[in-house]
């Protein structure tokens, strides 16, 4: 492990001990949002507690183009406060647990990392138009992997084509945290030593 610098330690409301920023950690499951992470983590070594860079620093409230009607509230439910009803991310359709953003009147939920997805991306195989992150529309078959699309997607409305969020890899404007997560999907789909998160399992049919 790399030498730690105390100046990089933070006190986060989800954990009793200070967390220290560590680069090059390898794979981990974030104890905030309970999704896979790779590389940079805010870590408590004593407890083997990890937070994504973004989960350690994301704000208590957020205005997002994904849900322009209302400000989203950051919520955190610890393992002792699990809900009976499973909540799913409105963007990627995976379950949200622990740390996430919520809109109470609309029952809208989103992973912290999913809020980092850019509204528009350049997709190299489709250079003429920007693709826009959309709730529905265009086509339900991914232009890249030909798999079915069941959640939000990047679409070109003009050309009526859609691409999975994780199949858009070519954009330099994609947020680093999000890119990290999607790049991390690659070794997992080929049976790495890491614990397979929920995320990959549900999308497994795309790779068959
Ligand atoms: Zn996280
Ligand atoms: Zn600790
Ligand atoms: Zn999500
Ligand atoms: Zn709302
Ligand atoms: Zn795809
Ligand atoms: Zn187009």
From TrEMBL:
It comes from Arabis nemorensis. The keyword Metal-binding applies. The keyword Ribosomal protein does not apply. It holds the Pfam family C1_2. Keywords: Metal-binding, Repeat, Zinc. One of its GO terms (molecular function) is metal ion binding. Residues 128-175 form the Phorbol-ester/DAG-type domain. This is Phorbol-ester/DAG-type domain-containing protein. InterPro entries: C1-like_sf (IPR046349), DC1 (IPR004146), PKC_DAG/PE (IPR002219).
